[in-house]
Amino acid sequence: MAPPSFAEEIEKASLFDFNLTLPIIMTEFLVLMFALDKIYFSPLGKFMDERDGAIKEKLNSVEDTSTEVKQLEDQSASIMKAARAEISAALNKMKKETQLEVEQKIGEGRKKVESELQEALASLDKQKEETIKSLDSQIAALSDDIVNKFWRQFLCFSVLHKILKG
Question: pTM (2 decimals)?
Fold first, then answer.
């Protein structure tokens, strides 16, 4: 047996045989890559781009809506302020009207009390005068009685005095 040649030794030591296998594998890889790009990755990329566009559009509309919401909040605040002012004015008006009614009723009550007081004072004056008249007549009667008794006693004493003296 002859010693193996150097080329034979290298051929045995190689891991891969690069005859037609490498170009076939490369062609298969490129065809698979092209097919996957056209069948899978392109529609998926298109779908993702459309979704991104829709999300951006929604975000822009939300930003536009935020200014609209701000305007509506400002408008509602001004409406609430106007309503509060209107309610306050109505309450003040009602308060004044009620106060006027109360003052009017108090005035009427005061007049009524004053008239009743005047009537009561007039009645008391009348009773006072009647009492004074009745007392005057009683005083006159009493003074007449006292004078009569005095004169009786005086006469009794003078008669007694005369009887005793003489």
Answer: 0.39
